[in-house]
Amino acid sequence: MLFFFVNISLITGIIGTIVVLKKMASIAGSISHSLLASIALSNMIKVNTLYTSIPFVLLASLFIHYVKRNKKINEEIALSIMWVLGVAIGIILINISNTYSSTISFYLFGNILFTDNTDIIISSLFSIFCILIYLLFSKEIKNIILDEEYSEIIGINTNLFNILILSLVGIAIVLTIKTMGIILLIAMFTIPATVAIKNSNSIEKCIVLTSIITFCCLIIGYYISYALNIPISSTITMTLVTTFLLSEILKRKRVIIWKIKH
Question: Of the candidates 46, 139, 37, which has an alpha carbon nearest to the alpha carbon of residue 90?
Fold first, then answer.
């Protein structure tokens, strides 16, 4: 379990930082909620959810990229339609198959205890892959995050890297959805990075701090839920929110102390 927490923290450190800096929270939310369709499909045809969810998020990444590039389409509306359409299709498939099993419930609300050795291996490989991608293309990723138009001017293939980033976000959501569930997943990809950004002066430091915050919140949430016998994903979410609130309080106190001293 500890090893899985490390993998999730590393993935969240890189992907969460990109999501927050590129203001992709709504995109992450749309992908995670629309995933209900692929999860329901995999449950209906009795296959591993990865077999339907990975192709789904890759297609979703291409669709989102097309929407972002097409100025004639309202991005916010398109994402909203994708969000509700995925949920609607998922509910229909669940109803048709008449198989609202505990599996669907786990994916909706999350349960870290539902993970197995396969999840640990895949998350390990993906966390290593994310680290390698960032190390190899850190310059391009930073430029696209900071200024996409300038990136195009200096010759960076922004289309390719935007699709890559969207695909990584989608796959990260698929691999972490068991931990938090569709409903609470967005907290994992936004809160730690938001706290880290306010206390970092570089993207690398933000990634490291995001990973540390995520890991600590996972551990604390896990033991609190075990001690109080309450849902683990909700406990982790409350731990994340508490961390954010504490960081805001400490930040304001530092500002007040600085003003008093000066």
Answer: 37
